[in-house]
Each structure stands twice: as C-alpha cells, then as structure tokens.
Specification:
Largest sheet of chain A: 5 strands, mixed
Number of strands of chain A: 5
Radius of gyration of chain B: 27 Å
Number of strands of chain B: 20
CATH class of the largest domain in chain B: Alpha Beta
CATH superfamily of chain A: Glutaredoxin
Oligomer: heterodimer
Number of domains of chain B: 5
Number of helices of chain A: 4
CATH superfamily of the largest domain in chain B: NADH-ubiquinone oxidoreductase 51kDa subunit
Largest interface: A-B, 33 and 43 residues
Shape of chain B: globular
Structural class of chain B: alpha/beta
CATH topology of the largest domain in chain B: Rossmann fold
Helix content of chain A: 25-40%
Number of helices of chain B: 22
Strand order of the largest sheet of chain A: 2-1-3-4-5
Strand order of the largest sheet of chain B: 9-10-8-7-11
Order of helices and strands of chain A: HEHHEEEHE
Number of domains of chain A: 1
Radius of gyration of chain A: 16 Å
Strand content of chain A: 15-25%
Shape of chain A: elongated
CATH architecture of the largest domain in chain B: 3-Layer(aba) Sandwich
Helix content of chain B: 25-40%
Distance between the termini of chain A: 47 Å
Structural class of chain A: alpha+beta
Strand content of chain B: 15-25%
CATH architecture of chain A: 3-Layer(aba) Sandwich
Distance between the termini of chain B: 67 Å
C-alpha cells in the first residue's frame, strides 16, 4: 500500500461484508423458514434472494423467521423498507424473487399480485 | 477476505476468558455442524476478541440480527444451527437475562451491561476478527495514520493530542500530548516509542483484551506516536503470560508489514517505522517505565531515579516515549474524529473514556468502558447489575494494589483522575473490585500489601523494608495479636514509604492500607481491641458458632456440611456445636432452615 487513497479504496471494497454486523436501519428481507416453509421450498427461495442481493451488491439485511401461521401460502418472504409497512409475499416461485427485488426493494413499488398481507409496525 | 457475501455472520468470542470456558471446541463443533447442514458457504464464522462479558462466556453473536447468546456449550450448537440459522427462530434459553428483572434480552445492544457503555478503546473488540487486517481496514483502520503521515506535521499531531486532553491510561494520568512534546523536543538521531503492555494489577485485563481483540489499533496508535516524536523504532513490552495477545500481535505486525503499513517509506511519506515485541517475565515492577526499559535492554528490571526522564534519556540512552496500551488505542479516534469531539466526552480535566475491569461481589463482572465522570454508582448498579441478592454494599476498591477502598458515601463520586485522588484512591490501570459486608477490610488491605511486598524489587529501602514491616503488622492484626498503637504505626510507616520510595510501586503500595484505615478504622479497632473480625473473614478471630436449642428442629442438615465434624446430635432433638472443634468457617449457618445457628 502506497497511499492514503489506496487504503480508502481497500476500505470501500471490504466494508460491504462487515456491514452484516451493522445494526442501523436497513431494508430487510425476511424468509419464512419454518418446517412448512422448508417443505414448500423456502431454502431455494432463500438462496435465490442471496444470489440476487449478491449479484446487485445490495445493502440489505437478509434474515429468516419461523412459521407465521400461513402455512398454505408458503414459501413466503417479507420485505420491509425503512419507514415503510412490512409487505408479505406468498406462494412464491424462485422466478418471482428477482421481480420482487427489482420492483420493490430497489424501486420501491410493491408487487401487488404477489402480496398476501401488509402490516404496519 | 472472501469475496462471496455471506447471509449471516456468527461471531464466536475467542478472547482468553471465553477460550478457557470452551470457545475453541464450540467453534469446531459449529464448523462441523454448518458443513453437515450444507451452510458453510452461506454463514461465516468469525473469531473475535473479548466482548468484556467473560463471566457469561462462551459468547456467540449472530448477525445480521445481532442476537446475543451466552454460556453456549458444544451441546447447544446443533440447536442454534437448526433453529436459528436454518429456521430463523431465536433460541430463547440461551439469551441473556437481566439479573434485576429476569427479563430475556435478545439483542446485544439492548443489554444494560452494553447499553450504558461508550466504547472507544474497545470499539472493535468483539466486533472484528483481530487476525484479519482487512476487517480492521473495513472499519476505517489505519486511516488516522494515513492522514497523519500524508497531511499533518508532527507538531500538528502533538497539538491535536494536547487539545484532546488525553491523559495516560496506565495509572499516572500524565497528559499524553505533553509527554510527546517532551520527546519531540529532545534532539537526537535515534528515538524510540514503547507500548507498555506489562499489565500487572491483579484482576485487570483491559490491556490484554485490547491486544487480543484489536491489535492493529495499538499498532496504529504507536505509528502515530512515532511520527509525532520522530522515532523510527518501537517496542511493545508485553508479559509472557499473555500468549494469545502475543500471537495476535505477532500476526498483526506481520500483516501490517505485508501491507506496507510498517517498515520503510510508509504511505510514501518517507517515514520509516519498525516494531518489535519484547516479552516480559511478569515482574510487577517492570510496569514502571524505567524498570521496563532496563528489562528491554536485557538488564535486571529495576527502576532508576528520574530525572532524567525517558523523554530525555530513555531506552539505550535515547529519547523515548512510553504509553500504555489503552492510551494508544485512543489515538486513532482522536485523529479521525478530531480532538474537540474527544474532549466533549468525559469531564473537563479528564476527557474521554476509561476501561474498567469490574469484579468482585457483583452480578455482571467484566470489562466496561464508560465516559470519565460516570459515577461509581452507575457503574456498579446500572452496568454491573448491583450486588448479589440480599447483600449490602460495603466498599469499592479502585486502582488495584496501588489504589484504595472507598465506602458507600462515595458512591456518587464521579470517576475521574482528580476526584479519585482526592478521595484517597486512584484511577490506576482501571481495576474495580466491589465488596459486600462479607469482606474484611483489614484482610483486603493485607491481600494487596502482600502482593506489592512480594513484587517489591528491593532496590530502595523504604519499599523493601517498609512494606515488609507493614505486612507483618497486618498479619499480626488479622491473626488476633494486634496491639495498641498498631494503627498509628501503620499510618506513620505508610506516609514515610509513600514519600521516600524510588518508584511508583513503593509510592503507592501503602494506599490500600491507608485508605482502609481512613474509612474503616472501626474494623481495625475491632480486630485489635475486641478480638473480633466483624465480617467473619479472619478465622483466628472468629468465635465458634452456636445452635439455639429452642429453635433447633433437629433436622441435622448442619452436621452434614461441617468439615470438621464439630456438630453432633440426634435427629429430631437439638444439635450442638463443639466450640473447641469449630473452626468458625460458617458453612452450617446458611444450611439451617430455621435460622437457629449464629456466631457466638
């Protein structure tokens, strides 16, 4: 390393990974991973979410949750933008994920036809 | 650092405290379990330094949620992986419970112990992998050094440190900026900087934790100090009893050299700095700066009179600047955030924060970092969670063997260098031992004096002979042979030793005795005049226990726990204690269901 600029470039490169440990407000994507969710294919949904987040180099927090009682609508994910209501999408296919991420997470437009619930916290 | 993005980070504390409670096996089991569930590519395990809450170890934190699990054993790993990492359900039984409310707290940041702290020196401890320089850089590491070397003159750096009001965290409290100025002003072709990591106070482990948890921060602090005074070589003097700190520091130095952050022409500034580690053999006196330098030079670790001060004639006869680990760990913050920002924290004459090793009869023990000026009460009751059930606060000992004990009336005292000195104790390196009514203050004073007496290097007479005589008197008092005039003699000796000893060890050794006499004189008097140890600690002064015949229900529980079989009797009739055999250990008293046992 030869200069302060070089150091700052390194920092920018490394900090995405360590942001996982940042507890500040960020967009959250929560995947239902109860037994019902897993049986309906939630693992593949989770992997698709992670791939999409990785591919687009997005600053979001991906977590899992247990069964929320809507087992027949699994697999489902929640998207919570900071300061916005929490939207639950259900009966998902892996192919729906890129649409949700592009439309909702990035552009802020809820994908109406996949929504099964809304909660304001 | 791996390029793929993990969805979750599991931080396993591998500080010395958690390692001794099994963190290494925990990590291995976790790795196996993740591999078994095919999660290794999604979840990253990070070994971190100390979180400060060693009592609750091994500690594991799961991000991005920030869930804090404590006292996690190998057997819990499968459940954490299955429930939390796979299904997203928090394993509630492993969460921390607040001692006062029994409430379960899932998140790291909401636990009282952490919530009320302000972390500067410990900012990265428990947050990053100390063996991964990239993680330090990811959080802005080495940018302060880069800024200093690229854009600041050495005088500007010193002015910034002076303006911050930072004072030495090793105990003395000398203004750091001024110390650097002296070393800079000394004209010489060769200068040194030394990091004093010879942490010797019993129970204090903040320096070890910083070196183990965030070694690069100390290296960065030294780099800045070296540039400011014009040194091109440095030593970290660390005791050999800290093997993990040494390993991580060695790794950190190696990595920094690889990145060109140590060595020649750092940041293309033309500035060179070489850093060595010197392992100390664990003599307490080697924490004193002149003795420390003698030890680095390969001589016997004994202090020499000052002046000349190290800033004028130090290591190998060259101007030298010596700072403590925690002091150096504050430097990068002051440069990046600015000295004004730093001096806003704390009090007018003691700016910034201080790390304390909180121990004793308290619910949450561990390392805590609080702004200067925080009161003893806040640290003990709000962060420390108060004393055990039904126990009453008696005293708090600060400053380790060089400090003193303060009674209850000082609980509202703000913690800063000057208030503590006025009250007859000192900041020291930051030991804080809380004592309840079961602690005998004479015995406490004896314990600390016993430590300093055996660590006295023997060079100067007041310390060598004086502490020995004081200890003899204390031994006599605690074994029931105290005499009239002993207290006055202790005071006289103490004052002489303080004013005539060569170095800080002797000058502060009588403090535990003098402060306990000042605040707990009645306990000394009870030992000497009434042959009584009010706390029941000094066995030779304790009278035998007796059973109240009227109250005794004859259950026999007391007889079962008596280690010397002094209790006899028939079930369902009153038991008796043989006063000649009883050693007054007190084991029987809490066993009695009807409180029929008391000390006679």
């Amino acid at each position: 390393m030869k200069s302060l600029e070089e150091l700052k470039d390194m920092r920018n490169k490394f900090q995405n990974e360590i942001k996982k440990r940042d507890q500040g407000p960020r967009t959250e994507i929560i995947v239902g991973m109860g037994t019902c969710g897993i049986a309906a294919g939630a693992r593949d949904i989770l992997k698709a979410v992670l791939q999409e987040v990785d591919k687009r180099n997005m600053d979001v927090r991906v977590t899992q949750t247990g069964c929320i009682g809507m087992c027949e609508k699994e697999p489902l994910i929640d998207v919570k933008l900071p300061g916005k209501e929490r939207i639950t999408y259900g009966n998902l296919e892996v192919s729906d994920i890129s649409k949700i991420i592009l439309e909702h997470v990035i552009n802020g437009n809820v994908v109406q036809d996949l929504v099964i619930a809304r909660h304001s916290e | 650092m791996n390029d793929s993005i993990y969805r979750s980070h599991v931080l396993v504390c591998t500080g010395t405290g958690c390692v001794s409670s099994g963190a290494k096996n925990l990590k291995t089991t976790l790795e196996e379990e993740l591999a078994d569930k095919d999660l290794s590519s999604e979840i990253k395990i990070v070994e971190t330094g100390c979180h400060g809450f060693c009592e609750k170890g091994p500690i594991m934190i799961v991000y991005p949620e920030g869930v804090f699990y404590c006292e996690v054993s190998e057997d819990d790993v499968a459940e954490v992986v299955e429930e939390h990492l796979l299904k997203g359900r928090t394993v509630e039984r492993l969460l921390f419970r607040e001692p006062m409310t029994e409430e379960q707290i899932p998140s790291y940041k909401d636990i009282d112990f952490y919530k009320k702290q302000q972390r500067i020196a410990l900012a990265n401890c428990g947050k990053i992998d100390p063996e991964d320089i990239d993680e330090y850089i990811a959080l802005g590491g080495y940018e302060a050094a880069g800024e200093v070397l690229t854009n600041m003159s050495s005088q500007e750096v010193i002015d910034e440190i002076k303006n911050s009001g930072l004072r030495g965290r090793g105990g003395g409290g000398f203004p750091t900026g001024l110390k650097w100025q002296f070393a800079k002003n000394s004209d010489s072709d060769k200068k040194y900087v030394i990091c004093n990591a010879d942490e010797g106070d019993p129970g204090a482990f903040m320096d070890r934790s910083i070196l183990e948890g965030d070694p690069h921060k100390v290296i960065e602090g030294m780099l800045i100090a070296a540039y400011a005074i014009g040194a091109d070589e440095g030593y970290v003097y660390v005791r050999a009893e800290y093997p993990l700190a040494i390993t991580r520091l060695e790794k950190a130095i190696e990595d920094s050299e690889k990145y060109g952050l140590l060595g020649d022409n750092i940041f293309s500034s033309g500035f060179n700095f070489k850093l060595h580690i010197k392992k100390g053999a664990g003599a307490f006196v080697c924490g004193e700066e002149t003795a420390l330098m003698a030890s680095i030079e390969g001589k016997r670790g004994m202090p020499t009179p000052r002046p000349p001060y190290p800033a004028v004639r130090g290591l190998f006869g060259k101007p030298t600047n010596i700072n403590n680990v925690e002091t150096l760990a504050n430097i990068p913050f002051i440069i990046t955030e600015g000295s004004d920002e730093f001096s806003k924290i704390g009090t007018e004459n003691s700016s910034g924060t201080k790390v304390f090793a909180l121990t004793g009869k308290i619910n949450n023990t561990g390392l805590v970092e609080v702004p200067m000026g925080t009161t003893l009460k806040e640290v003990i009751y709000e962060i420390g969670g108060g004393l055990g059930a039904g126990k009453k606060f008696k005293a708090v000992q600060t400053g380790g063997p060089s400090g003193g004990c303060l009674p209850e009336k000082y609980l509202d005292l703000p913690i800063d260098y000057d208030s503590l000195l006025d009250a007859g104790t000192m900041m020291g390196s930051g030991g804080m031992v809380v004592m309840d009514e079961d602690s005998c203050m004479v015995d406490v004073a004896r314990f600390f004096l016993n430590f300093t007496q055996s660590e006295s290097c023997g060079k100067c007479t007041p310390c060598r002979e004086g502490t020995k005589r004081m200890l003899e008197i204390l031994n006599r008092i605690t074994s029931g042979d105290g005499k009239d005039g002993d207290i006055e003699l202790l005071e006289e000796l103490g004052h002489h030793i303080k004013s005539t000893s060569l170095c800080g060890l002797g000058q502060s050794a009588p403090n535990p005795v003098l402060s306990t006499i000042r605040y707990f004189r009645d306990e000394y008097e009870a030992h000497i005049h009434d042959d009584n140890c009010p706390a029941g600690v000094c066995k030779e002064l304790s009278s035998a226990y007796v059973i109240d015949e009227e109250a005794c229900i004859g259950c026999g529980k007391c007889a079962k726990v008596c280690p010397v079989d002094a209790i006899s009797g028939e079930i369902k009739s009153a038991f008796v204690i043989d006063a000649d055999i009883c050693i007054a250990c007190g084991a029987c008293e809490p066993e009695c269901p009807v409180d029929a046992i008391s000390q006679g």
